[in-house]
Amino acid sequence: MLKRLSWFAFLFLLSFSPPSEAISAEPSSTAFTSISKIHTFQQLVSLDYFFFDKGPPPLDPVNPLNLLEEGKDRIILAGDSWAAFPCSFDSMEKVLKYVNSRLKNDWRCQQTSRLGMRADEWLGTKEDLELTDIIIHDKRIKFIYLSLGGNDVLDGWNVNMNSSEEDKLLVRISSDLKRITDKYLALRPDLKIIISGYDYPHFKLNHAIPVYRKIYNRMGRPTPAQLNKALAGFSAYLSSLMDRKQTFYIHHLGLMQYYDGIPPSIMAPGSTLPPAHISPFDRPELVGGNVFVSTSESSMMVWLKMFADAFHPTEKNYFYIMLHSYDNLLVHLHRK
Domain 70-333 is in which class? Predict the structure, then answer.
């Protein structure tokens, strides 16, 4: 799917150079503005309507809003690239069919997710307004699967931060997320909102894609252990803030290392903590994998069969991420 990305779109990505800036412990509110534009362009050209040759399901002529079987509870994905990519891949839809769940995926996630989205810019965006309209008018939506905060971390975190500065960043991001969940729960107190985290990335010096080189340099060129531990700390902090009645958290740190290992011989698949013990329902802060090494490039999305992404998994691994979310969390919240 994504490997069919046009040369034009990909060369646009390769040639892009966001404004250089000094590495600082102070978060920048504009650092991802241009990156968000790139991701929006990618989504428009390669993900949503042009290359997938498919649109939304046909409307029911009797009841245009009845896009899925009447009476079926729904889940809708929303947020950043870790919602947009599995939405385009139909990852959640495939998982729900795979486990024979009565829960249904809502296809309108194409309108409620955008690559490059940040938590601190979410409220008021067209994606937020679309999601708001959906939950108000469609009572079959019982779950929001919200992926936000990752871009805020990549933009705001720096390896030279002291603990006080890191805490300030965590509080800022968690406050943004709380404002978002509070808005939706005020409109629909019956909703359950799942905030989904991420997996270990694969940043490296002189990455082939300029955007990722810029991000890596802005973070102060952290080692895999430094960056992975920062993500683990972020996940643990967010986990502690969930009320576990209306808001829940799950991350996927170590999931791809379990399924793919670290080839050629560093780590065999299946040799790390299994998915059931990574961010389990009763201990969502627990991480898997080896925090001292990056996720393998073989686990990451590849552009034009040549350039491995630094942060976004393959289609196969997005399926495993959605399956992990179902097995460790959704199955506890929604009966088949």
Answer: alpha beta
